[in-house]
Amino acid sequence: MSDPPASRESAFRVEARARGEHVRRRARVWLAPGIGVKRWLALFMICTFVGAVGFLHFTWTGPLHFIATKWILWLNALIAPEVLPLYVAGISVTTLALLGALWSIFMLNRSMLGGTGTLPGQAVDMILEQRNLSRGPRLVAVGGGTGLSNLLSGLRSYSSNITAVVAVSDDGGSSGRLRESLQMIAPGDLTDCYAALSDSPVMARLLLHRFQRGDGISGHTFGNLMLATLSEEQGGLGEAMKDIHEVLRIRGRVYPASTHPTTLVASLSDGREIRGESSFAAQVGNARITRVRLDPPDLPALPDVLDAVREAGQIVLGPGSLFTSIIPALLVPEIAHAIRQSAAPLVYVASLMTEPGETDNLTLEDHVQAITAHLGRMPDRVLVNSESPPDDVMRRYADAGAHLLDLHGASHDLRSRVTQLPLLQPGQARHNPEALARALMALPSRAT
């Protein structure tokens, strides 16, 4: 049974109102502050008006005077002056011509965008987002592991002026196998950061895909193999950086701390040395790591990394493993020097828990002192989580020998630098990317 006419008319009105509201919303977005449309629309209308007046002057005073005369006579005959004054008729024709010009531009844009698979409504949202992100603060994030990629996934909502400087001394798992066979830097943490900042959801998913079978590729991620391919083809990842950023549509930039392979060496409190960060957890034993170094030590940094540090509004260390993710990136001499010389606030995002075999029994103060000793500069702010993970999570970490990092026993100087905020993922002992990014955005930054 069909709907009654009144019902159909009501539904039609509701749909018409919805379409009208959608058009008005899209118009408001196009005219929103910062998108850079109003100024050009105003210029277009002014130029159109001036052009119309100039053309009228040309036709009335030049050789086309007879055409202007015929046009006016035709318009007078078409519209009776006693019904509509002649000047109103002229304004009406001018307005219709301007609206036609604007409509033609709209349809031209629609046709061009249609060829790219982008709808006009999507285009304005993308333009507005990119404009706002391009005005975001200049941030440099230093570290590695899942902590850095987790941070980047939150920061990407606030700025596209992000530079990630990634430690590349990992020698375990897929990265270790590729390092050994191809004599390249460790690609694993780079892959995670590329995935976190990629504007292509499909590519981000593919980068992290780990092969579960296949002779020679089992255990490798697609991203690691892609970086290995580019490194092999171009003689190192340094030459491939531009291609990587364009292919993966990275929101910001991701660079290795150095493009030269290096080995992390730890000095222990009992006098021993351990080579290779994948061996730390198993070989430290009851000793403590007192210092780490790179072998070879005098590694060059990419010029783009040094430029990013010099222009940074804020430099963030971590979150991540103290001796195997954060400090290794600071051991590249040029990077350490640039950070020491930078006027940007240096923020250390403290780990949530200690790591068995690496930072056993170290306090928050010990973490900050280790960074200061290796870098030669103390963090200006220390961002610390104020929440406690669920009891079952704490028990699981305690069974593994880890404990919560807090302000227990912290000196007055450290407490004066600390900002405590709830930063946990619900039900986990892991940083919430959105909460962490908001906290960093609220901290002071240097104007750049």
From TrEMBL:
The keyword Nucleotide-binding does not apply. GO terms for cellular component: cytoplasm. One of its GO terms (molecular function) is LPPG:FO 2-phospho-L-lactate transferase activity. Pfam families: CofD. Its main location: cytoplasm. The chain crosses the membrane at residues 40-60, 84-106. SUPFAM superfamilies: CofD-like. GO terms for biological process: regulation of cell shape. Coiled coil: none annotated. Belongs to the gluconeogenesis factor family. Required for morphogenesis under gluconeogenic growth conditions. HAMAP family: Gluconeogen_factor. This is Putative gluconeogenesis factor. The lineage of its organism: Bacteria, Thermotogati, Deinococcota, Deinococci, Deinococcales.
